């Protein structure tokens, strides 16, 4: 049975799936799609399991409000409670100051449940050019680990992303939201991804993007697309369905759902996903 057939029948998809862009803990300030009885982490995992999603890589919503230390403590607890089901990014919030950022990176990079770093730059916490983000990118470059970087429209500036990649060839820079949430910004992001071996495009939040998954794959290559849903802010069925029902071969869908993410972790000195 093909992946598309499984999806049509409402079955959990049988291929390995990693949701590389998720959030835990309720957040009620922005009108996100959150069913409040499904916001506990165990309920998130139940809902993902029904779809066939094997594990999540997450960041608590406390990062939005700049509560870096609290976000990382919550992630640490979730990793421990839901071993091999929950992995996390280290929250990096430059407004907390350089010493605090250094302390968090040093502390949590030793925990194998943390796979990389998460940035919310631009509108949220400042430009990629601030010293704390530059330090964190240098750290990720040294570790060879991924950075999942929120990008919406041209915020942070795509030119700053490209400049960061020019001198850091070991970090794995994942440009979230298909490069900015629309076809316009996917077009701008695509050359950055194709020009830099360590740059990737993540899919979530694609409701306003006129490109299908097959278009994005054609633009950046089948090895450069990472699956994420933005759960619990968005319903994970949306992005899962876009991949599952796309005209792409199952071989390529499997790359998007898990294999590409596992591949970018291979050379990392931080954590690895232990299942799949």
Structural summary, described in words:
The protein has helices spanning 3-8, 41-51, 68-81, 98-108, 131-143, 158-166, 183-195, 213-220, 236-244, 250-265; strands at 18-24, 55-60, 86-92, 114-119, 146-149, 172-175, 199-202, 225-226. It has one domain: Metal-dependent hydrolases (TIM Barrel), CATH 3.20.20.140. The protein is an alpha/beta fold and 276 residues long. The chain contains ten helices and eight strands. The chain is 40% helix and 14% strand. An eight-stranded parallel sheet has the order 1-2-3-4-5-6-7-8, sandwiched between helices.
Can you tag this structure with a few keywords?
alpha/beta, eight-stranded parallel beta sheet, 10 helices
Q: What is the percent of helical residues?
A: 25-40%
Order of helices and strands: HEHEHEHEHEHEHEHEHH
Shape: globular
CATH topology: TIM Barrel
Give the helix/strand layout:
Elements: H1 3-8, E1 18-24, H2 41-51, E2 55-60, H3 68-81, E3 86-92, H4 98-108, E4 114-119, H5 131-143, E5 146-149, H6 158-166, E6 172-175, H7 183-195, E7 199-202, H8 213-220, E8 225-226, H9 236-244, H10 250-265
Helix pairs in contact: 3-4, 4-5
Question: Summary?
Answer:
The protein has 276 residues and is α/β, with parallel strands linked by helices. It is built from ten helices and eight strands. Helix content is 40%, strand content 14%.
């Amino acid at each position: 049975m093909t992946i598309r057939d499984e999806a049509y029948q409402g079955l959990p998809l049988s291929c390995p799936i990693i949701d590389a862009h998720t959030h835990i803990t309720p957040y009620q300030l922005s009108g996100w799609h959150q069913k409040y009885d499904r916001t506990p982490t165990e309920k998130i995992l139940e809902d993902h399991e029904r779809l066939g999603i094997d594990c999540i890589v997450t960041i608590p919503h406390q990062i939005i409000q700049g509560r870096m230390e609290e976000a990382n403590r919550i992630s640490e607890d979730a990793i421990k409670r839901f071993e091999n089901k929950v992995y996390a990014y280290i929250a990096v919030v430059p407004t907390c100051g350089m010493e605090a950022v250094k302390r968090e990176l040093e502390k949590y990079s030793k925990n194998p449940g943390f796979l990389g770093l998460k940035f919310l730059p631009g509108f949220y916490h400042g430009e990629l050019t601030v010293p704390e983000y530059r330090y964190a990118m240098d750290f990720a470059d040294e570790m060879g680990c991924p950075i999942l970087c929120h990008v919406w429209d041209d915020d942070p500036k795509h030119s700053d992303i490209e400049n960061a990649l020019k001198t850091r060839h070991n970090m794995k820079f994942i440009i979230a939201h298909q490069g900015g949430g629309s076809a316009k910004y996917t077009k701008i992001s695509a050359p950055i991804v194709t020009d830099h071996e360590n740059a990737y495009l993540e899919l979530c939040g694609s409701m306003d993007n006129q490109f299908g998954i097959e278009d994005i794959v054609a633009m950046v290559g089948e090895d450069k697309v990472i699956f994420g849903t933005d759960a619990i802010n968005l319903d994970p069925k949306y992005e899962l369905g876009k991949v599952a029902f796309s005209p792409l071969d199952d071989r390529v869908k499997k790359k998007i759902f898990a294999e590409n993410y596992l591949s970018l972790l291979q050379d990392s000195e931080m954590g690895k996903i232990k299942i799949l």
